[in-house]
């Protein structure tokens, strides 16, 4: 038996997604066997071909069909699994009319993954949450720097979106499950900031729409906001560390590099790729104009809670406990832009 085949089997949900594919890639490269999940196996060949272009460990990858909203297929997907990376969760560009459209699949999907993992004797589950479950809904009481000790409220209030609420409720439900029903199984949670960086294949990501928008004229000027930024490759690394590190059990880890204003992102793109920066804005946009634009552009409504906010975050715990080290946020922006150019998105 080869060294690769001797490694444990890891179930990764969301195998078609931006983060999920990077988690799968790093697991394969580290020698793990991986079973990736998706709603329909019709996409399995495409994902396999995509990953085969960047790893020679593709024989250690298999797939299973499961849905966040149904029990079908979950027992079979968990067979022989030692670890679960639950990455899958809805992340739309626009704001749904009904927050339950995000909350229910996010919460119920997390609980399904945990419940079936527990039944299968899984050792540890790593859940992909978000800084959205930490630094939203606080209004003017938002600390200058947020960390894992803070929770976004579990109700829809000012400065809280349907997406951030869904991540909060799903993560809360996961911790409650571990406390009440999860005896013998461990949970670790990763809370990334804005995830940028290169795609594994050509499947665009909602996260990358910020960079794509800067390069394609979606933003005629710079709104007054920014994000903590983290490279998707570093997010995937955090997932592996949280799976393997003994001290990660029962802990949540905020992962972020530097905070960047949208203007800083645009200027970085312009300086690095001047031939593709014709539509990158040069002026700032007053917040009143952004609010006016959002009336006609539903996709822009998720931006409104960000206006005037500075959601800075600390990854000191991940660095201290896991030994995690991110690359600079600027590198993630450059990698995103370069990949979007290379793959024909801009």
Task: Explain what you see.
This protein is an alpha/beta fold. It has a single domain, classed as NAD(P)-binding Rossmann-like Domain (Rossmann fold, 3-Layer(aba) Sandwich). The chain has twelve helices and twelve strands. The protein has helices at residues 3-6, 18-30, 44-52, 74-77, 100-119, 162-181, 209-216, 232-244, 262-272, 287-296, 316-322, 329-342; strands at 9-13, 33-38, 61-65, 81-86, 124-128, 145-146, 186-192, 194-196, 226-231, 252-255, 259-261, 312-313. The protein has a seven-stranded parallel beta sheet, sandwiched between helices. Strands 8-9-11 form a three-stranded mixed beta sheet. Strands 6-12 form a two-stranded parallel ribbon. Helix 5 links the parallel strand 4 (81-86) and strand 5. Helix 2 packs across helix 8 and helix 5 (100-119) runs parallel beside helix 6. The protein is globular, with a radius of gyration of 20 Å. The protein starts with a helix and ends with a helix. The model has no long low-confidence stretch (mean pLDDT 92).
